[in-house]
Amino acid sequence: MRTSVVRSSLFLSRILACAALVVFVVALSGCSSGGAGAPIAPAITLTYTPDPGTGISQVTTADGAGSSAGVAEVEIYVTDVLGVLAAAFTLDYDPAAVAYLDFDLLGSQLGADGATVEPIVQELQAGQLRVGLTRLAATGIDFNGQQLLVRIRFARAGSSGASTLSFSANQLLDPMTPPQPIPGVQWFGGSFQIQ
After folding, report:
1. Closest alpha carbon to 53 in 192, 156, 167, 181
2. Every domain of the chain and the residues it spans
3. Spelled out in words, what is the top-level CATH class assigned to the domain 46-194?
4. What is the model's pLDDT at position 17?
C-alpha cells in the first residue's frame, strides 16, 4: 500500500511541476515587450477632406458624422440657392481607392416642407455615380444659408494613397416647365485619404 501512495504522490508531483512550467511559460510570453508572434498591423483608415467653397451660391461637401475607419460619409450641401426643384450630378472618384456604398436623404432640405423626394442613384460605371433628386411638388424650395442636400457613403477599396471626389454634369434645376438650370452655382468636391 505504501508503494501505491508513493507512486500517487510522485505522479501528483509531476503533474504539479508540469502545470507550474506551463504557467511560467504563459506568463513569460505575456510579459515580453516585442513578443515572438506576428506583429499587429495598424488599422487602415479612410478619411474625407472637403475642398473649401468660394462664392455666394454653391454646392459643397463635408465629412459626415457617419464616417468611420473604413467608411467615408460625404455630406453634400447647397448654400444660398432659391427655388430648387431638383438636383442632378455625377460624382467622379477612383474606384481603386473607394467604392460606393449607399445614400440617405434624412434631413435633406429638398423635403423639409413635407414634399416627397424621388431619388435616382446609379453607378454608371466604376468610379462614376449618377445622382438625381427631384421634389414631387409644383414648387421649388429655398436653400437659405448652408443646408443639406444628400449624404453618400463610400467604403475603402484601396490600402493607401489619396484620390479626388469631383462633380461633373452638375446642375440645380428650378420649377419652370420644363425645369431650367439655376445659373451661377459653383460646385466643390474634395479628396479621400487612405492610410
Report:
1. 167
2. 1-35, 46-194
3. mainly beta
4. 37
